[in-house]
Amino acid sequence: MAEWRKVIWSDECYIWLDDNRSRIFVTRRADEEYLEECVVQVFKQASVCVMIWGCIMEGRKGPLVVLEYPGGRGGGMNTKRYREQVLDAALKPFYQEMTKARGRVHFQQDGASCHTSKATKKWFEDNHIPLFYHPANSPDLSPIEPVWNELKKIIRNLEHRPTSTDGLITAIHAAWEELSIDDVNKHVHGMPERVEAILKARGGHTRF
């Protein structure tokens, strides 16, 4: 378990203003797949959303960043914005804090282009932050993925749901504070089981 304890797990996630999506189970026979009563209609989602970045470790929630970018052609998340908003502003101080507390720590991120650019790789080298290996093509089994689901569930269950971008951002930060460390640990501690399952499935589908 010590290996998982020394990994900072990170990811980006979109949070929509009117996110009503949650897992729905339908009990049916094999030949009833497309019957009207066995199909859940899909409704158009609100166009307002924010992208967030966050990270977790065993026993810790790291910083949560609401990413700022103009959108449109050339206005998405790029190396410069990732370095300024995430790596310099959020990850570096958290990483330094964790290395003092736990010794050598690795950082996990997925294979997004702004994560793997030459400039980003140089940033990690210059700051002496080792990366946790992430295959180029792999199931996303990072424990922060189900943590995002927990975060969205808190927001969906609010008595007064946000109705504006500013309100959504406030709700996201409040939900991150409310998120239980027990939930974080549950998913981090489940990593050995997740890895074992995907190896047994030879990269195929698993219950995760």
List descriptors.
Nucleotidyltransferase, domain 5; four-stranded mixed beta sheet; alpha+beta; single chain; 8 helices; 208 residues; globular
Q: Provide the β-strand percentage band.
A: 5-15%
Largest sheet: 4 strands, mixed
Overall shape: it is: globular
Radius of gyration: 19 Å
**CATH architecture label:** 2-Layer Sandwich
Number of strands: 4
Distance between the termini: 19 Å
What's the CATH H-level homologous superfamily? Answer: Ribonuclease H-like superfamily/Ribonuclease H
What's the CATH class, please?
A: Alpha Beta
Count of distinct structural domains: 1
Computed structural class: alpha+beta
Fold blueprint:
Elements (H helix, E strand, L loop, with lengths): L1 H4 L1 E10 L32 E9 L2 E7 L12 H24 L3 E3 L4 H4 L1 H9 L17 H13 L8 H14 L2 H9 L1 H10 L8
Parallel strand pairs: 1-4
Antiparallel strand pairs: 1-2, 2-3
Helix pairs in contact: 5-6, 5-7
Description of the molecule:
- This protein is of the alpha+beta class and 208 residues long.
- The chain has a single domain (2-19, 45-200), classed as 2-Layer Sandwich (Nucleotidyltransferase, domain 5), CATH 3.30.420.
- It has eight helices and four strands; from the N terminus they run H-E-E-E-H-E-H-H-H-H-H-H.
- The chain has helices spanning 2-5, 79-102, 113-116, 118-126, 144-156, 165-178, 181-189, 191-200, and strands spanning 7-16, 49-57, 60-66, 106-108.
- A hairpin with a 2-residue loop joins strand 2 (49-57) and strand 3.
- The longest helix has 24 residues, at 79-102.
- It is globular.
- The two termini are 19 Å apart.
